[in-house]
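Write out the bound-state structure for guanosine-5'-diphosphate.
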Amino acid sequence: GFNCGIVGLPNVGKSTIFNALTSAGAESANYPFCTIDPNVGIVAVPDPRMDKLAEIVHPERILPTTIEFLDIAGLVKGASQGEGLGNKFLGHIRSVDAILHVVRCFENENVVHVSGSVSPRRDIEVIQTELALADLDTVEKRIQRTEKQARGGDKKAKEDVDFCLRVKSTLEKGESPRNLPENEDERLILRDMHLMTAKPVLYVANVAEDDLEGTHPYVEEVRQLAASEGAGVVTICGNIEAEISELEGEEKLAFLQEMGLAESGLDRLIRSGYELLGLITYFTAGVKEVRAWTITRGTKAPGAAGVIHSDFEKGFIRAEVIAYEDFIASGGESGAKEKGLMRLEGKEYVVNDGDVMHFRFNV
Ligand code: GDP
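---
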């Protein structure tokens, strides 16, 4: 599955947010929060479209799609040199698809700040420096390994070294190598290295209870930095989320209303994480179940079918597709068919977010 690692300095609110995320996930009866590990949680992706589909189809059950979160504790200044949990911690970050970087934007005398004062920019830079140093080590090792072959006249190896040198100087400038590759070979080299600084990042500005509304200088600091990297920011208050996560149904709605919130920050966070990963959802809608399935944007019909079952992909013949809006506006499948809004699509069809799909395949 797809996963996000939650990182940040100690005492910024990571555990508070992770616990709120994963206990809130328990509310979705069909996808209870699964404890794989104390620090790994699976969370349902909230999608109001599923309820609309269910109103039409009246399925026996509704199954949302999910995302995995990892609470990666232990990053401190010097981690790349083995301080704190050091390399063990860094190994966890290498394995995630994307990073949620929690930044402390709340003052609280009772909660010690590891560097003595609240300073979002400095905190972010401490983490980024550790990640960049560890990545530099990775790149340098690859260069050392590949240089010998390059000197021996291996053209591919030479290109590999040249690209890695560009990655190295980008890291030395304190920038992300994320957008460096100019062709498929370079993209593969970058992917192969699992560099942490190349992963997509979403910043989570963790603010005090009273600072959820309006603009706050600390949040502005995070926003500016994020904007310069092309990253997103979600503002939440860890303590409020912890309270919300203990409520359900009516009680939860009442609390949100009282706080003047349309949805919990965690719902926003989950959805942003989903977008950050470049993921979209398609649906299957039958009387047994209405279900959401996760695919990467750009996936073609057979690949989408393969998420359900590999046989669907192997034996793919065609897909019957109704856009979500058409499905709802036509009152369901038969209505959409009558209006000619059900399309038959082949192997080259690129699935759209919200497509309601039915696959035809050979067994
Ligand atoms: P971690 O070390 O990053 O996992 O941080 P924790 O989640 O353990 O939080 C450290 C402390 O900060 C705890 O005492 C939390 O109650 C407190 N804290 C977390 N989020 C907030 C917040 O949004 N506002 C305030 N005032 N305190 C918070």
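---
The longest strand covers residues 98-105.
Residues 82 and 239 are 31 Å apart (CA to CA).
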